[in-house]
Amino acid sequence: MNEKRTENILEVEEVIMAFGGLVALINLDFQVQHHTIKAIIGPNGAGKTTLFNVITGSFSPTEGTVRFNGKSIENLKAHEIAKLGISRTFQTIELFTNMTVLENVMVGCHTRIKSSFIASGLRLPQVKRKEEQMRSKAMDILEFVGIADKYNESADSLPLGERKILEIGRALATEPELVCLDEPASGLNETETQAAADLIRRIKDKGVTVWLVEHDMKVVMDIADDIMVLNYGEKSAEGPPLEIQNNPKVSEAYLGGGEENNA
Amino acid sequence: MLRIGKLPITFFALFIIVFPWIARVIPGIGHYPDLLIFAGIYCLMTMGLSLLLGYTGQISLGQAAFYGIGAYVSAILTTTYGLNPWLCMIIGMIVAAIVAIMVGVPALKLRGHYLAMATLAFGIIVFIIFNEEVEWTGGPDGMSGIPGLSVFGFNFDTTEKYYYLVWFFVYAAFIFTINVIQSRSGRALRAIHASEAASNAMGIDVSRFKIMVFVYSAILASLAGSLYAHRLNFINPTTFDLFFSIKLLIMIALGGMHDIWGAIIGAFLITFLSFEWLHFFGEFEVIVYGVILLLIIIFLPHGLAGIPHIVKGWLRR
Known about the structure:
CATH topology of chain B: ABC transporter involved in vitamin B12 uptake, BtuC
Shape of chain A: globular
Oligomer: heterodimer
Number of strands of chain B: 4
Number of helices of chain B: 14
Order of helices and strands of chain A: EEEHEEHEHHHHEHEHEEHH
Largest interface: A-B, 44 and 29 residues
Number of domains of chain B: 1
Structural class of chain B: mainly alpha
CATH superfamily of chain A: P-loop containing nucleotide triphosphate hydrolases
Shape of chain B: globular
Helix content of chain B: over 70%
CATH architecture of chain B: Orthogonal Bundle
Distance between the termini of chain A: 46 Å
Helix content of chain A: 25-40%
Largest sheet of chain B: 2 strands, antiparallel
Structural class of chain A: alpha/beta
CATH class of chain A: Alpha Beta
Radius of gyration of chain B: 19 Å
Radius of gyration of chain A: 19 Å
Number of domains of chain A: 1
CATH topology of chain A: Rossmann fold
CATH architecture of chain A: 3-Layer(aba) Sandwich
Strand content of chain A: 15-25%
Order of helices and strands of chain B: HHHHHHEEEHHHHEHHHH
């Protein structure tokens, strides 16, 4: 079978992640289909962030396989995974605060437009051209995410909502096939949340698959094609939003009475 | 956007070019070109250290060791083996680069205090080797009879000639360094400083970049060492001790480590302080350095190069 033709972009098989005696993920199995938005929900301590770190290469799973486009990636380092086409954002925002908004996105272009240390030092002609190329690509991305007017501002001067947006933009600059978002709406107000949700939908429309961890149920129900519920490191339910909403076990544990969980 | 202005560089280059003439006419500063040779040699090292510590956020307390490696490789190969000094200089840089890779691969996996301790230990080990390998290095007595430099029969035998030679290297290294800073590699280094996790997520091979910049700083220090050895024609281990590594840190802290100009300013000031202005403190010189470092860290955390920003801040109010 041709590896590139698999229906699923991401396949997680029997993943176990143990830290000493603490087992954070237990025999986890799930797939993410191409060009969809898949959300992971679950209470605090369910193992969502651990799962996130396993997929993006911060941790290697104790056992099991993670396949991206048919290629197993569970033993690759984070930067190698980024090169393959999986990008991520951080729950606790990790922007390069010593740089401008534009430079942050330009760092995201690192793996796709290359010029070596020595070539840069000698300022060879192609270096200047590539620098321009990076700059215009980064500007295009800022246009796409909607903060192009802030390009020359320091990254840490942005309000929270825009910092989250910038993190997403920076992730997109790596030209990912799969983008993993760690709580993109946490801490945002109603308008900012709406903007983030819109952006995530537009990312999907561009043909990029989205995999996200999110607490805001309204956002999840609104944008996700597929939801997986994680509880104590195990999958407790999986399916389209409606099915998850109507699953009594799930709604009782995590969704409560609807609106009050939106905060 | 990080841009390093071209105008100050041009002015600075002009200043360096005309300075020996100025020094000739103003009474009392006739020996300043000699001091600027040392300032230039220090600049080579502080630029490397600024890129390593200020931009990438990786400390090294072992830079004097690379300085010494350059000096001793040049000294041993020219005096004992009679090799061409320029060839020795290149061999010195290669040796320094190999040593930097051997030390850097394990050490740069460490962070903060641990990296400081590892590079500190490395510096001490190299210092002990210089002292104890008497057959090679002459031990504490050092090595003399190191030849001067010449190219195609042109001897760099006067202070002014050597001054221009050193500053040619400093200028080349400075341009190379600022080009790196304003490129993809420079952004990667600053990204590593801000967040290693996010750098990894952007596909930056963090350890590779850390090692690359460590090697670069080692090569510059080795070049500085060779230039030092051929200038003084004599070396001994005390020049390359731990205190010198710390002095380099004081230089970039004083000048400002987040700005490549800080490396230049710091090297100049410490050169003049140690050779000219602090003589009457004698043994207590060290204390003065301590006080300077303390005051800078408390009142000017971005060093002297940060003053323009502070002034701009005042004007805006």
